[in-house]
Amino acid sequence: MKLTSLEKLFVHELKDLYSAENQLLEALPQMAKASSSGELREGFKSHLIETEEHVRRLDQIFEELNYSATGETCDAMKGLVAEGEEIIEMEGEPAVKDAALIAAAQRVEHYEIAAYGTARTIAKHLGNEKAASLLETTLKEEAATDKKLTNLAESGAHINKMAMR
Predict the structure, then answer these.
(1) What is the pLDDT of residue 154?
(2) Direct distance between the N- and C-terminal alpha carbons of the chain, in angstroms, rounded to an integer
(3) In a 10 Å sphere around its CB, with 0-12 CB exposed, 13-18 middle and 19+ buried, how is residue 94 labelled?
(4) Over 90: is that where the pLDDT of 7 sits?
(5) Is pTM beyond 0.85 here?
(6) What's the mean pLDDT when you consider all of the chain?
(7) Which domains does the chain have, with CATH numbers?
């Protein structure tokens, strides 16, 4: 695809997000399974359900734009998922591995926050308020997930404190 217009850039960004979310649909169950903390495991399972909704929203946008959702591979997410897989396969103390899983998950969330924010802004510039609204909803959910992960690390399940022992 040639980037000859803001609309084409928007579609490119959406396809990248679509690929990223679908890669996460495969990675989140593995991360949940690798978690020793029940709270972290449930957090990953909960985010899997949210991610399914993120894909549905993207499908809705693609349908309204009359574009196919496929055709791009999000290389950034591919790398982030590979880092998470490395952590899953490492041997180590359960709490330390949980802290590492949180770190990997937060890198994913920060990538998604940046990508959804960019796509939302482009949608607004294109005057596509419906797409902008759907993307904003997902953006808020991604930010909330990031905060939940921070809470698990710092206060909720005290995973970082447990990792220090």
Answers:
(1) 81
(2) 52
(3) middle
(4) yes
(5) yes
(6) 94
(7) 6-164 (1.20.1260.10)
